[in-house]
Design a protein that fits this description.
heterodimer, A: 309 residues, alpha/beta, 7-stranded parallel β-sheet, 5-stranded parallel β-sheet, 29% strand, B: 254 residues, two-stranded antiparallel ribbon, binds flavin-adenine dinucleotide, binds adenosine monophosphate
Protein backbone atom coordinates (compact mmCIF):
# COMPACT_ATOMS: atom_id res chain seq x y z
CA UNK A 1 0.00 0.00 0.00
CA UNK A 2 1.01 3.59 -0.44
CA UNK A 3 1.84 6.23 2.13
CA UNK A 4 0.09 9.56 2.35
CA UNK A 5 1.88 12.68 3.54
CA UNK A 6 -0.48 15.54 4.30
CA UNK A 7 1.33 18.74 3.41
CA UNK A 8 1.40 21.69 5.74
CA UNK A 9 0.27 24.57 3.57
CA UNK A 10 1.78 27.73 4.97
CA UNK A 11 -0.48 30.45 3.56
CA UNK A 12 -0.39 29.32 -0.05
CA UNK A 13 3.06 27.78 0.00
CA UNK A 14 4.32 24.33 0.78
CA UNK A 15 5.39 24.41 4.45
CA UNK A 16 9.02 23.28 4.93
CA UNK A 17 8.23 20.64 7.60
CA UNK A 18 6.41 18.71 4.86
CA UNK A 19 9.84 17.80 3.46
CA UNK A 20 10.91 16.17 6.74
CA UNK A 21 7.68 14.18 6.80
CA UNK A 22 8.42 12.95 3.26
CA UNK A 23 11.78 11.65 4.49
CA UNK A 24 10.06 9.79 7.32
CA UNK A 25 7.64 8.35 4.75
CA UNK A 26 10.56 7.23 2.58
CA UNK A 27 11.69 4.95 5.41
CA UNK A 28 8.44 3.01 5.05
CA UNK A 29 7.57 0.65 2.26
CA UNK A 30 5.34 2.05 -0.47
CA UNK A 31 4.79 4.87 -2.94
CA UNK A 32 4.61 8.29 -1.38
CA UNK A 33 1.64 10.50 -2.22
CA UNK A 34 1.46 14.06 -0.98
CA UNK A 35 -1.91 15.68 -0.31
CA UNK A 36 -2.03 19.43 -0.77
CA UNK A 37 -5.30 20.87 0.44
CA UNK A 38 -6.28 24.51 0.56
CA UNK A 39 -7.69 27.36 -1.45
CA UNK A 40 -5.81 28.46 -4.57
CA UNK A 41 -2.87 26.19 -3.91
CA UNK A 42 -1.76 25.24 -7.42
CA UNK A 43 1.71 26.60 -6.70
CA UNK A 44 2.01 24.51 -3.54
CA UNK A 45 0.87 21.41 -5.44
CA UNK A 46 3.41 22.22 -8.14
CA UNK A 47 6.13 22.57 -5.50
CA UNK A 48 5.06 19.28 -3.90
CA UNK A 49 5.32 17.53 -7.28
CA UNK A 50 9.00 18.46 -7.44
CA UNK A 51 9.87 17.01 -4.05
CA UNK A 52 12.25 14.10 -4.49
CA UNK A 53 10.72 10.75 -3.64
CA UNK A 54 7.06 11.60 -4.20
CA UNK A 55 5.11 9.46 -6.67
CA UNK A 56 1.91 11.47 -6.85
CA UNK A 57 0.44 14.73 -5.61
CA UNK A 58 -3.23 14.92 -4.71
CA UNK A 59 -4.76 18.35 -4.83
CA UNK A 60 -7.93 19.35 -3.02
CA UNK A 61 -8.53 22.97 -3.92
CA UNK A 62 -11.64 24.72 -2.62
CA UNK A 63 -12.68 27.86 -0.76
CA UNK A 64 -13.77 25.99 2.36
CA UNK A 65 -10.27 24.48 2.71
CA UNK A 66 -8.74 27.91 3.18
CA UNK A 67 -6.93 28.31 6.54
CA UNK A 68 -6.87 24.52 6.98
CA UNK A 69 -9.97 24.37 9.16
CA UNK A 70 -9.73 20.93 10.77
CA UNK A 71 -13.46 20.29 10.52
CA UNK A 72 -13.36 20.68 6.73
CA UNK A 73 -9.96 19.17 6.07
CA UNK A 74 -10.19 15.95 8.12
CA UNK A 75 -13.01 14.45 6.00
CA UNK A 76 -10.94 15.02 2.83
CA UNK A 77 -8.11 12.94 4.29
CA UNK A 78 -10.49 10.31 5.65
CA UNK A 79 -12.11 9.90 2.23
CA UNK A 80 -8.69 9.02 0.77
CA UNK A 81 -7.55 6.82 3.64
CA UNK A 82 -8.55 3.41 2.27
CA UNK A 83 -5.64 3.49 -0.19
CA UNK A 84 -2.99 4.07 2.45
CA UNK A 85 -1.24 2.09 5.17
CA UNK A 86 0.25 5.18 6.81
CA UNK A 87 -0.91 8.79 6.95
CA UNK A 88 1.81 11.22 8.01
CA UNK A 89 1.53 14.84 9.04
CA UNK A 90 4.34 17.19 10.03
CA UNK A 91 4.16 17.86 13.78
CA UNK A 92 3.51 21.56 13.23
CA UNK A 93 0.51 23.33 14.74
CA UNK A 94 -1.23 22.44 11.47
CA UNK A 95 -0.52 18.72 11.80
CA UNK A 96 -1.20 18.66 15.53
CA UNK A 97 -4.58 20.24 14.93
CA UNK A 98 -5.76 18.04 12.08
CA UNK A 99 -4.10 14.61 12.50
CA UNK A 100 -5.95 13.51 15.67
CA UNK A 101 -9.25 14.42 14.05
CA UNK A 102 -8.38 12.12 11.16
CA UNK A 103 -7.15 9.38 13.48
CA UNK A 104 -10.34 9.40 15.57
CA UNK A 105 -12.54 9.25 12.47
CA UNK A 106 -10.52 6.23 11.32
CA UNK A 107 -10.67 4.69 14.79
CA UNK A 108 -6.90 4.52 15.06
CA UNK A 109 -4.66 5.55 17.95
CA UNK A 110 -2.35 8.23 16.58
CA UNK A 111 1.39 8.14 17.20
CA UNK A 112 2.53 11.70 17.90
CA UNK A 113 5.81 13.39 17.17
CA UNK A 114 7.88 10.43 16.01
CA UNK A 115 11.66 10.73 15.97
CA UNK A 116 12.48 7.38 14.37
CA UNK A 117 10.85 4.80 12.12
CA UNK A 118 11.77 1.47 13.71
CA UNK A 119 9.56 -0.71 11.53
CA UNK A 120 6.30 -0.35 9.61
CA UNK A 121 4.41 -0.58 12.88
CA UNK A 122 6.84 0.65 15.53
CA UNK A 123 8.11 4.13 16.06
CA UNK A 124 10.23 6.03 18.53
CA UNK A 125 8.79 9.09 20.21
CA UNK A 126 9.93 11.27 23.10
CA UNK A 127 7.69 11.43 26.17
CA UNK A 128 7.89 13.22 29.53
CA UNK A 129 9.42 16.36 28.05
CA UNK A 130 12.03 14.35 26.21
CA UNK A 131 13.31 12.67 29.36
CA UNK A 132 12.40 9.28 27.94
CA UNK A 133 12.35 7.83 24.44
CA UNK A 134 9.60 5.28 23.98
CA UNK A 135 9.37 2.80 21.13
CA UNK A 136 5.70 2.00 20.65
CA UNK A 137 4.16 -0.61 18.42
CA UNK A 138 0.77 0.01 16.89
CA UNK A 139 -1.80 -2.74 16.52
CA UNK A 140 -4.06 -0.60 14.33
CA UNK A 141 -4.39 -1.43 10.62
CA UNK A 142 -3.77 2.12 9.61
CA UNK A 143 -1.16 4.31 11.22
CA UNK A 144 -1.76 8.02 11.68
CA UNK A 145 1.49 9.72 12.62
CA UNK A 146 2.89 13.19 13.21
CA UNK A 147 6.57 13.63 12.42
CA UNK A 148 9.03 15.73 14.41
CA UNK A 149 10.90 17.73 11.79
CA UNK A 150 14.22 17.96 13.63
CA UNK A 151 14.56 14.17 13.68
CA UNK A 152 14.45 13.70 9.91
CA UNK A 153 16.42 15.44 7.16
CA UNK A 154 14.51 17.42 4.60
CA UNK A 155 13.74 15.63 1.34
CA UNK A 156 15.19 17.50 -1.62
CA UNK A 157 12.73 20.15 -2.75
CA UNK A 158 13.76 19.66 -6.38
CA UNK A 159 14.30 16.62 -8.53
CA UNK A 160 10.93 14.89 -8.35
CA UNK A 161 8.37 14.84 -11.14
CA UNK A 162 5.17 13.54 -9.56
CA UNK A 163 1.88 13.93 -11.37
CA UNK A 164 -0.74 16.22 -9.84
CA UNK A 165 -4.25 14.81 -9.56
CA UNK A 166 -7.36 16.61 -8.34
CA UNK A 167 -9.28 14.87 -5.58
CA UNK A 168 -12.65 15.48 -3.98
CA UNK A 169 -12.47 18.55 -1.75
CA UNK A 170 -15.57 17.62 0.25
CA UNK A 171 -17.89 20.34 1.44
CA UNK A 172 -18.07 23.06 4.05
CA UNK A 173 -19.20 21.61 7.37
CA UNK A 174 -20.03 25.14 8.54
CA UNK A 175 -18.75 24.24 12.02
CA UNK A 176 -16.04 26.88 12.13
CA UNK A 177 -14.92 29.89 10.18
CA UNK A 178 -11.80 32.00 9.96
CA UNK A 179 -11.98 35.49 11.44
CA UNK A 180 -8.48 36.95 11.43
CA UNK A 181 -4.80 36.26 11.85
CA UNK A 182 -1.97 38.23 13.38
CA UNK A 183 1.10 36.64 11.93
CA UNK A 184 4.63 37.52 12.98
CA UNK A 185 6.53 39.17 10.16
CA UNK A 186 10.26 38.80 10.13
CA UNK A 187 13.15 39.08 7.73
CA UNK A 188 15.09 36.60 9.81
CA UNK A 189 15.21 32.87 9.07
CA UNK A 190 12.31 30.77 10.33
CA UNK A 191 12.97 29.48 13.85
CA UNK A 192 12.65 25.76 13.14
CA UNK A 193 14.68 25.95 9.94
CA UNK A 194 17.54 28.24 11.00
CA UNK A 195 21.19 27.16 11.27
CA UNK A 196 21.68 29.43 14.25
CA UNK A 197 19.14 30.32 16.91
CA UNK A 198 19.62 32.83 19.69
CA UNK A 199 16.97 32.77 22.40
CA UNK A 200 16.26 35.10 25.26
CA UNK A 201 14.61 34.39 28.59
CA UNK A 202 13.26 36.18 31.61
CA UNK A 203 16.76 37.55 32.18
CA UNK A 204 16.20 40.00 29.32
CA UNK A 205 13.82 41.87 31.59
CA UNK A 206 11.72 43.57 28.90
CA UNK A 207 10.61 43.47 25.28
CA UNK A 208 12.81 46.48 24.45
CA UNK A 209 15.86 44.63 25.70
CA UNK A 210 15.19 41.91 23.16
CA UNK A 211 16.65 44.32 20.60
CA UNK A 212 20.03 43.36 22.08
CA UNK A 213 19.34 39.78 21.04
CA UNK A 214 18.06 40.86 17.63
CA UNK A 215 21.22 42.81 16.86
CA UNK A 216 23.38 39.77 17.52
CA UNK A 217 20.93 37.60 15.56
CA UNK A 218 21.30 39.86 12.55
CA UNK A 219 25.09 39.67 12.75
CA UNK A 220 24.89 35.88 12.75
CA UNK A 221 21.98 35.46 10.33
CA UNK A 222 20.21 33.75 13.18
CA UNK A 223 16.57 33.24 14.12
CA UNK A 224 15.31 34.57 17.45
CA UNK A 225 13.61 32.33 19.99
CA UNK A 226 12.53 32.65 23.60
CA UNK A 227 11.65 30.80 26.77
CA UNK A 228 8.10 30.50 27.97
CA UNK A 229 8.79 33.05 30.69
CA UNK A 230 9.79 35.65 28.08
CA UNK A 231 6.65 34.97 26.05
CA UNK A 232 4.36 34.98 29.09
CA UNK A 233 5.83 38.32 30.15
CA UNK A 234 4.96 39.70 26.72
CA UNK A 235 8.55 40.43 25.66
CA UNK A 236 8.01 38.55 22.37
CA UNK A 237 5.10 36.83 20.57
CA UNK A 238 3.98 33.26 21.29
CA UNK A 239 5.53 31.82 18.14
CA UNK A 240 9.02 32.50 19.55
CA UNK A 241 8.59 29.90 22.30
CA UNK A 242 11.05 27.02 22.19
CA UNK A 243 10.32 23.97 24.31
CA UNK A 244 8.22 20.98 25.20
CA UNK A 245 5.03 22.81 24.42
CA UNK A 246 6.42 25.30 21.91
CA UNK A 247 8.71 24.78 18.94
CA UNK A 248 11.35 22.09 18.69
CA UNK A 249 14.62 23.30 17.20
CA UNK A 250 17.94 21.61 16.49
CA UNK A 251 20.22 24.17 14.82
CA UNK A 252 23.99 23.96 14.44
CA UNK A 253 24.31 26.61 17.10
CA UNK A 254 21.85 27.50 19.86
CA UNK A 255 22.64 30.44 22.12
CA UNK A 256 20.55 30.67 25.30
CA UNK A 257 20.71 34.08 26.93
CA UNK A 258 19.21 34.72 30.37
CA UNK A 259 17.49 31.33 30.30
CA UNK A 260 17.77 29.07 33.35
CA UNK A 261 17.32 25.76 31.49
CA UNK A 262 14.10 24.24 32.85
CA UNK A 263 13.38 20.74 31.50
CA UNK A 264 10.51 22.15 29.47
CA UNK A 265 12.89 24.49 27.69
CA UNK A 266 15.61 21.85 27.24
CA UNK A 267 13.04 19.56 25.60
CA UNK A 268 12.88 21.99 22.70
CA UNK A 269 16.58 22.60 22.04
CA UNK A 270 18.81 19.94 23.53
CA UNK A 271 19.35 18.22 20.19
CA UNK A 272 21.11 21.32 18.89
CA UNK A 273 24.64 20.58 17.69
CA UNK A 274 26.43 23.23 19.73
CA UNK A 275 24.85 24.96 22.72
CA UNK A 276 26.08 28.21 24.24
CA UNK A 277 24.70 29.48 27.53
CA UNK A 278 25.07 33.04 28.76
CA UNK A 279 23.82 33.44 32.30
CA UNK A 280 25.01 35.31 35.35
CA UNK A 281 24.13 32.44 37.67
CA UNK A 282 26.85 29.81 37.42
CA UNK A 283 24.50 27.25 38.97
CA UNK A 284 21.88 27.63 36.24
CA UNK A 285 20.96 24.16 34.88
CA UNK A 286 21.40 25.36 31.30
CA UNK A 287 25.18 25.03 31.85
CA UNK A 288 24.76 21.26 32.26
CA UNK A 289 23.88 20.94 28.58
CA UNK A 290 26.00 23.79 27.22
CA UNK A 291 29.16 23.13 25.21
CA UNK A 292 30.32 26.64 26.00
CA UNK A 293 29.16 28.52 29.05
CA UNK A 294 29.79 32.16 29.80
CA UNK A 295 28.98 33.24 33.35
CA UNK A 296 28.37 36.93 32.91
CA UNK A 297 25.79 39.67 32.77
CA UNK A 298 23.96 39.53 29.47
CA UNK A 299 23.75 43.32 29.38
CA UNK A 300 27.55 43.38 29.08
CA UNK A 301 27.87 40.35 26.83
CA UNK A 302 25.28 41.08 24.13
CA UNK A 303 26.58 44.56 23.19
CA UNK A 304 30.12 43.19 23.15
CA UNK A 305 29.08 40.30 20.90
CA UNK A 306 27.29 42.72 18.61
CA UNK A 307 30.40 44.81 18.36
CA UNK A 308 32.91 42.01 17.89
CA UNK A 309 31.07 39.69 15.52
CA UNK B 1 -24.64 27.02 29.78
CA UNK B 2 -22.87 23.92 31.01
CA UNK B 3 -19.15 23.27 30.64
CA UNK B 4 -17.33 19.97 30.92
CA UNK B 5 -13.63 20.05 31.84
CA UNK B 6 -11.56 16.85 31.58
CA UNK B 7 -8.57 16.88 33.95
CA UNK B 8 -5.72 14.41 34.03
CA UNK B 9 -3.53 13.35 36.90
CA UNK B 10 0.08 13.56 35.71
CA UNK B 11 3.60 13.50 37.03
CA UNK B 12 4.18 16.97 38.52
CA UNK B 13 5.92 19.26 36.03
CA UNK B 14 8.75 19.94 38.48
CA UNK B 15 9.65 16.28 38.88
CA UNK B 16 12.18 14.65 36.59
CA UNK B 17 10.69 11.51 35.07
CA UNK B 18 12.43 8.21 35.80
CA UNK B 19 12.36 5.07 33.72
CA UNK B 20 11.44 1.89 35.61
CA UNK B 21 14.00 -0.89 35.86
CA UNK B 22 12.05 -3.09 33.41
CA UNK B 23 12.96 -0.59 30.67
CA UNK B 24 9.36 -0.70 29.47
CA UNK B 25 7.52 1.66 31.77
CA UNK B 26 7.90 4.77 33.85
CA UNK B 27 8.63 4.67 37.56
CA UNK B 28 5.72 6.55 39.06
CA UNK B 29 5.86 5.06 42.56
CA UNK B 30 6.17 7.64 45.33
CA UNK B 31 6.54 10.61 43.04
CA UNK B 32 4.54 13.80 43.22
CA UNK B 33 1.51 13.78 40.93
CA UNK B 34 -0.52 16.87 40.06
CA UNK B 35 -3.16 18.11 37.71
CA UNK B 36 -1.82 18.47 34.17
CA UNK B 37 -0.91 22.21 34.00
CA UNK B 38 -2.91 22.77 30.82
CA UNK B 39 -5.97 21.37 32.60
CA UNK B 40 -5.50 23.86 35.45
CA UNK B 41 -5.76 26.52 32.77
CA UNK B 42 -8.93 24.85 31.43
CA UNK B 43 -10.55 24.77 34.88
CA UNK B 44 -9.60 28.39 35.46
CA UNK B 45 -11.15 29.46 32.16
CA UNK B 46 -14.40 27.67 32.99
CA UNK B 47 -14.48 29.27 36.44
CA UNK B 48 -13.92 32.73 34.94
CA UNK B 49 -16.79 32.17 32.52
CA UNK B 50 -18.96 31.17 35.44
CA UNK B 51 -17.91 34.21 37.44
CA UNK B 52 -18.80 36.35 34.42
CA UNK B 53 -22.31 34.88 34.56
CA UNK B 54 -21.96 33.11 31.21
CA UNK B 55 -21.75 29.58 32.55
CA UNK B 56 -24.09 27.98 35.06
CA UNK B 57 -22.43 24.66 35.81
CA UNK B 58 -18.92 23.21 35.60
CA UNK B 59 -18.50 19.44 35.61
CA UNK B 60 -14.96 18.09 35.86
CA UNK B 61 -14.06 14.56 34.84
CA UNK B 62 -10.97 12.44 35.14
CA UNK B 63 -10.19 9.01 33.78
CA UNK B 64 -7.70 7.22 35.96
CA UNK B 65 -7.05 5.47 39.24
CA UNK B 66 -8.82 6.18 42.56
CA UNK B 67 -6.09 8.70 43.32
CA UNK B 68 -7.36 10.89 40.50
CA UNK B 69 -10.05 11.88 43.01
CA UNK B 70 -7.44 14.22 44.47
CA UNK B 71 -7.10 15.93 41.10
CA UNK B 72 -10.86 16.28 40.87
CA UNK B 73 -11.05 17.70 44.41
CA UNK B 74 -8.45 20.28 43.41
CA UNK B 75 -10.67 21.35 40.51
CA UNK B 76 -13.70 21.47 42.81
CA UNK B 77 -11.75 23.65 45.24
CA UNK B 78 -11.01 26.12 42.46
CA UNK B 79 -14.67 26.43 41.55
CA UNK B 80 -16.00 23.42 39.63
CA UNK B 81 -19.42 22.27 40.81
CA UNK B 82 -19.40 18.53 40.35
CA UNK B 83 -16.93 15.77 39.52
CA UNK B 84 -16.95 12.41 37.78
CA UNK B 85 -14.21 9.83 38.08
CA UNK B 86 -14.10 7.17 35.40
CA UNK B 87 -12.16 4.71 37.47
CA UNK B 88 -9.68 2.29 35.93
CA UNK B 89 -6.95 0.22 37.50
CA UNK B 90 -5.31 -0.62 34.23
CA UNK B 91 -1.60 -0.28 34.82
CA UNK B 92 -0.17 2.30 32.50
CA UNK B 93 3.25 2.21 30.92
CA UNK B 94 3.43 5.70 29.54
CA UNK B 95 0.98 8.36 30.52
CA UNK B 96 -2.32 6.76 31.38
CA UNK B 97 -5.24 5.69 29.22
CA UNK B 98 -4.61 6.39 25.52
CA UNK B 99 -6.11 9.53 23.95
CA UNK B 100 -8.52 7.68 21.65
CA UNK B 101 -9.93 5.67 24.56
CA UNK B 102 -10.17 8.82 26.70
CA UNK B 103 -11.96 10.58 23.85
CA UNK B 104 -14.46 7.72 23.59
CA UNK B 105 -15.17 7.81 27.31
CA UNK B 106 -15.57 11.58 27.16
CA UNK B 107 -17.94 11.25 24.20
CA UNK B 108 -20.14 8.90 26.25
CA UNK B 109 -20.09 11.41 29.11
CA UNK B 110 -20.91 14.31 26.82
CA UNK B 111 -23.92 12.37 25.58
CA UNK B 112 -25.07 11.91 29.19
CA UNK B 113 -24.29 15.40 30.42
CA UNK B 114 -25.06 17.50 27.34
CA UNK B 115 -22.57 20.32 27.91
CA UNK B 116 -22.43 23.23 25.43
CA UNK B 117 -18.69 23.49 25.70
CA UNK B 118 -15.78 21.23 26.62
CA UNK B 119 -12.59 22.99 27.70
CA UNK B 120 -9.52 20.80 28.06
CA UNK B 121 -5.73 20.93 27.94
CA UNK B 122 -3.87 20.98 24.64
CA UNK B 123 -1.38 18.38 25.80
CA UNK B 124 -0.66 16.05 28.69
CA UNK B 125 2.84 16.76 29.93
CA UNK B 126 3.51 13.05 30.47
CA UNK B 127 2.67 11.32 27.19
CA UNK B 128 2.90 14.62 25.25
CA UNK B 129 0.23 13.36 22.84
CA UNK B 130 -1.72 16.51 22.04
CA UNK B 131 -4.63 14.46 20.66
CA UNK B 132 -7.57 14.01 22.99
CA UNK B 133 -9.47 17.27 22.36
CA UNK B 134 -9.24 16.97 18.59
CA UNK B 135 -10.33 13.32 18.80
CA UNK B 136 -13.31 14.10 21.01
CA UNK B 137 -14.33 16.85 18.65
CA UNK B 138 -14.14 14.43 15.70
CA UNK B 139 -16.15 11.72 17.46
CA UNK B 140 -18.87 14.21 18.37
CA UNK B 141 -18.82 15.99 15.01
CA UNK B 142 -18.28 19.29 16.84
CA UNK B 143 -16.10 22.28 16.07
CA UNK B 144 -12.63 22.57 17.59
CA UNK B 145 -10.52 25.49 18.78
CA UNK B 146 -7.12 24.13 19.73
CA UNK B 147 -4.20 25.91 21.46
CA UNK B 148 -6.41 28.74 22.68
CA UNK B 149 -4.98 31.94 24.10
CA UNK B 150 -8.30 33.83 24.15
CA UNK B 151 -11.90 32.68 24.36
CA UNK B 152 -14.95 34.91 23.83
CA UNK B 153 -18.37 33.39 24.22
CA UNK B 154 -21.02 34.75 21.88
CA UNK B 155 -24.58 33.79 21.15
CA UNK B 156 -24.49 30.25 19.78
CA UNK B 157 -20.82 30.60 18.97
CA UNK B 158 -17.44 31.13 20.51
CA UNK B 159 -14.47 33.08 19.21
CA UNK B 160 -11.16 31.38 19.87
CA UNK B 161 -7.73 32.92 19.31
CA UNK B 162 -5.19 30.17 18.66
CA UNK B 163 -1.42 30.08 19.11
CA UNK B 164 -0.08 28.76 15.81
CA UNK B 165 3.43 28.43 14.39
CA UNK B 166 3.15 31.71 12.49
CA UNK B 167 1.58 33.76 15.28
CA UNK B 168 -2.09 34.03 16.21
CA UNK B 169 -5.29 33.11 14.41
CA UNK B 170 -8.90 33.70 15.44
CA UNK B 171 -11.66 31.28 14.51
CA UNK B 172 -15.35 31.49 15.15
CA UNK B 173 -16.76 28.14 16.28
CA UNK B 174 -20.34 27.06 16.28
CA UNK B 175 -21.48 25.76 19.67
CA UNK B 176 -21.26 23.11 20.99
CA UNK B 177 -17.49 23.17 20.69
CA UNK B 178 -14.25 21.75 22.06
CA UNK B 179 -11.55 24.17 23.16
CA UNK B 180 -8.01 23.15 24.12
CA UNK B 181 -5.93 25.53 26.19
CA UNK B 182 -2.51 27.01 25.57
CA UNK B 183 -0.26 28.62 28.16
CA UNK B 184 -1.28 32.21 27.62
CA UNK B 185 -5.04 31.73 28.08
CA UNK B 186 -4.97 32.69 31.75
CA UNK B 187 -3.04 32.30 34.96
CA UNK B 188 -4.70 29.67 37.15
CA UNK B 189 -5.46 30.62 40.74
CA UNK B 190 -4.61 28.60 43.81
CA UNK B 191 -7.43 27.11 45.83
CA UNK B 192 -8.10 28.96 49.09
CA UNK B 193 -8.17 26.83 52.23
CA UNK B 194 -11.88 27.34 53.00
CA UNK B 195 -12.66 26.30 49.42
CA UNK B 196 -10.57 23.16 49.80
CA UNK B 197 -12.74 22.28 52.81
CA UNK B 198 -15.93 23.07 50.92
CA UNK B 199 -14.79 21.00 47.95
CA UNK B 200 -14.82 17.89 50.11
CA UNK B 201 -18.60 18.15 50.23
CA UNK B 202 -19.16 18.68 46.53
CA UNK B 203 -20.56 15.66 44.64
CA UNK B 204 -18.08 13.22 43.09
CA UNK B 205 -19.53 10.25 41.19
CA UNK B 206 -17.56 7.22 40.14
CA UNK B 207 -18.21 5.32 36.93
CA UNK B 208 -16.42 2.51 35.13
CA UNK B 209 -15.51 1.90 31.49
CA UNK B 210 -18.34 -0.64 31.40
CA UNK B 211 -20.85 1.93 32.64
CA UNK B 212 -19.92 4.05 29.62
CA UNK B 213 -19.67 1.11 27.23
CA UNK B 214 -16.05 1.81 26.33
CA UNK B 215 -12.79 -0.11 26.55
CA UNK B 216 -9.45 1.10 27.90
CA UNK B 217 -7.52 -1.69 26.18
CA UNK B 218 -4.42 0.00 24.65
CA UNK B 219 -3.77 0.01 20.91
CA UNK B 220 -0.10 0.87 21.30
CA UNK B 221 2.25 -1.40 23.16
CA UNK B 222 5.50 -0.17 24.60
CA UNK B 223 8.45 -2.06 23.15
CA UNK B 224 11.07 -0.20 25.15
CA UNK B 225 11.72 3.03 26.97
CA UNK B 226 15.22 4.39 27.11
CA UNK B 227 17.01 7.50 28.21
CA UNK B 228 17.93 9.98 25.51
CA UNK B 229 21.65 10.36 24.83
CA UNK B 230 23.16 12.41 27.64
CA UNK B 231 24.72 15.75 26.88
CA UNK B 232 27.86 16.44 28.80
CA UNK B 233 28.44 19.86 30.26
CA UNK B 234 31.20 21.47 28.22
CA UNK B 235 33.60 24.17 29.30
CA UNK B 236 33.19 27.60 30.83
CA UNK B 237 34.80 30.33 28.78
CA UNK B 238 36.32 33.38 30.39
CA UNK B 239 35.07 36.14 28.13
CA UNK B 240 33.41 37.12 24.89
CA UNK B 241 36.65 36.97 22.89
CA UNK B 242 37.27 33.38 23.92
CA UNK B 243 33.69 32.48 23.14
CA UNK B 244 33.88 33.93 19.62
CA UNK B 245 37.23 32.25 19.04
CA UNK B 246 35.89 28.85 20.15
CA UNK B 247 32.79 29.16 18.01
CA UNK B 248 34.86 30.11 14.98
CA UNK B 249 37.88 27.87 15.29
CA UNK B 250 36.92 24.95 17.49
CA UNK B 251 33.22 24.31 16.90
CA UNK B 252 33.30 26.01 13.48
CA UNK B 253 29.68 27.05 13.70
CA UNK B 254 30.01 30.76 12.91
C1 LIG C 1 3.00 22.99 31.22
C2 LIG C 1 4.26 23.75 31.07
C3 LIG C 1 4.82 23.90 29.81
C4 LIG C 1 5.98 24.63 29.65
N1 LIG C 1 6.50 24.73 28.38
C5 LIG C 1 7.63 25.46 28.21
C6 LIG C 1 8.22 25.59 26.92
O1 LIG C 1 7.73 25.06 25.92
N2 LIG C 1 9.34 26.36 26.81
C7 LIG C 1 9.93 26.97 27.89
O2 LIG C 1 10.94 27.66 27.72
N3 LIG C 1 9.40 26.84 29.11
C8 LIG C 1 8.26 26.11 29.29
N4 LIG C 1 7.73 26.03 30.55
C9 LIG C 1 8.26 26.89 31.61
C10 LIG C 1 9.53 26.38 32.32
O3 LIG C 1 9.16 25.49 33.35
C11 LIG C 1 10.29 27.57 32.92
O4 LIG C 1 9.46 28.26 33.83
C12 LIG C 1 10.79 28.58 31.88
O5 LIG C 1 11.48 27.90 30.85
C13 LIG C 1 11.70 29.59 32.54
O6 LIG C 1 12.08 30.58 31.62
P1 LIG C 1 13.45 31.38 31.83
O7 LIG C 1 14.57 30.43 31.86
O8 LIG C 1 13.46 32.47 30.83
O9 LIG C 1 13.21 32.09 33.25
P2 LIG C 1 13.92 31.83 34.64
O10 LIG C 1 13.83 30.42 35.04
O11 LIG C 1 13.38 32.86 35.56
O12 LIG C 1 15.44 32.13 34.35
C14 LIG C 1 15.96 33.39 34.06
C15 LIG C 1 17.46 33.24 34.01
O13 LIG C 1 18.06 34.46 33.61
C16 LIG C 1 19.25 34.65 34.34
N5 LIG C 1 19.52 36.09 34.35
C17 LIG C 1 18.77 37.07 34.92
N6 LIG C 1 19.32 38.27 34.70
C18 LIG C 1 20.44 38.06 33.99
C19 LIG C 1 21.46 38.91 33.47
N7 LIG C 1 21.40 40.25 33.62
N8 LIG C 1 22.48 38.35 32.79
C20 LIG C 1 22.56 37.01 32.62
N9 LIG C 1 21.62 36.16 33.10
C21 LIG C 1 20.58 36.66 33.77
C22 LIG C 1 18.96 34.09 35.70
O14 LIG C 1 20.17 33.73 36.36
C23 LIG C 1 18.10 32.87 35.36
O15 LIG C 1 18.87 31.71 35.21
C24 LIG C 1 6.59 25.26 30.74
C25 LIG C 1 6.06 25.09 32.02
C26 LIG C 1 4.90 24.35 32.19
C27 LIG C 1 4.34 24.18 33.55
N1 LIG D 1 -7.09 10.36 31.61
C1 LIG D 1 -7.62 11.56 31.35
N2 LIG D 1 -8.61 12.05 32.13
C2 LIG D 1 -9.14 13.26 31.88
N3 LIG D 1 -8.73 14.05 30.87
C3 LIG D 1 -7.76 13.62 30.08
C4 LIG D 1 -7.15 12.35 30.26
N4 LIG D 1 -6.22 12.19 29.29
C5 LIG D 1 -6.23 13.32 28.56
N5 LIG D 1 -7.16 14.18 29.02
C6 LIG D 1 -7.48 15.53 28.50
O1 LIG D 1 -6.95 15.66 27.21
C7 LIG D 1 -5.96 16.70 27.16
C8 LIG D 1 -4.91 16.39 26.14
O2 LIG D 1 -4.26 15.19 26.48
P1 LIG D 1 -3.31 14.36 25.49
O3 LIG D 1 -4.07 14.15 24.24
O4 LIG D 1 -3.03 13.09 26.24
O5 LIG D 1 -2.07 15.17 25.30
C9 LIG D 1 -5.50 16.84 28.60
O6 LIG D 1 -4.98 18.12 28.83
C10 LIG D 1 -6.81 16.59 29.36
O7 LIG D 1 -7.62 17.74 29.36
Amino acid sequence: MSILVVADIDGKELGPATLNAVTAASQLDGDIHVLTAGDGISAAAEAASKVAGGAKVLKADAGHLCHALAENLAPVVVALASDYSHILFPATTFGKNVAPRVAALLDTQQISDITKVVSASSFERPVYAGNALAVVESTDDKKVITVRATAFDKAAAEGGSASVEDVDAGSDTGLSSFEKAELSESERPELTAADIVISGGRGLGSGENFSLIEKVADKLGAAVGASRAAVDAGYVPNDYQVGQTGKIVAPNLYIAVGISGAIQHLAGMKDSKVIVAINKDEEAPIFQVADYGLVADLFDVLPELDQKL
Amino acid sequence: MKVLVPVKRCLDYNVKARIASDGKSMDLANVKMSMNPFDEIAVEEAVRLKEAGKVSEIVVVSIGPDKAQETLRTALAVGADRAILVQTDKPTDLGGVEPLAVAKALKALVEKENPDLVIMGKQSIDDDSNQTGQMLSALLGWSQGTFASKVELGDGNVSVTREIDGGLETLKLKLPAIITTDLRLNEPRYAALPNIMKAKKKPLDTLSADDLGVSFEPRLSVVSISEPPKREAGEKVADVDTLIDKLKNEAKVI
